[in-house]
Amino acid sequence: MSARVRDENGRPLAGAEMALRHRRTQRVTHATADDFGLVVSTAASGMYAVSISAGGYRESEHNVEVVSGDHTALGELMLQPDTGLRLPAPGEWVLDQDHTSIRFVARHIGLSRVHGRFTSFRGTINVGHRIEDSSVEVVIDAASIETAAPQRDEHLRSADFLDVEHYPRLHFFSNRIQHAAGDRWFLDGTLNLRGASRGVRLDAGYLGLRTWNGDRLGARATTELHREDFTINWQQTLAKGLVVVGSTVEIQLDIQAIRA
Q: What are the tens digits of pLDDT across the range 158-176?
């Protein structure tokens, strides 16, 4: 079974998910659309309830019969925006540190991934009358880095890595926000880390609004940093040139902000 998924403007919706639920056995099969919006799944013959979904869009549902040895094509499917996902009102929103996480993932000797986080930070989101006119600023206390290994944490705080004695803060501020599709946005900005300023792009997903001890908005975002860009050049190699610490670091953000 296949479908080609597009957004309301006819552009491919990469990452859209197709779920097939067999009517008799209730077994569910999932498949994800590629960069061209094409999603393909192989399933046993039978009747299926098929749903196509993507963040920020209304789900598309279909009843489909899969025939053994045949190709069932749903064709071009254009998803429509979810109008229930309200955007935040203009004004200042402050990061809730108790319900926000700033995490990172790095490779270790090419085998495992080391997970860490920063535990002390502050930030604001200034929402404009147009979301594209909004801005984001976050300041992170470098010494608050934590990986659940005290000896490693001390090394990360040293001059080999963050050098927190001379560069106590990481500072990010956005200079451009643009809508990608559905609930996805791109935030372009500048990150100052260890005295070096470099442009970064955050791939963000807007999660909507809730009321709980104040008005809150939710978002998630990811980006990838190359540590050499910020003069973090410490390296140690094992036999055959295998590096101990990978050169790229994945940043993962889960955000709750409260209306000020």
A: 998 899 999 999 999 999 9
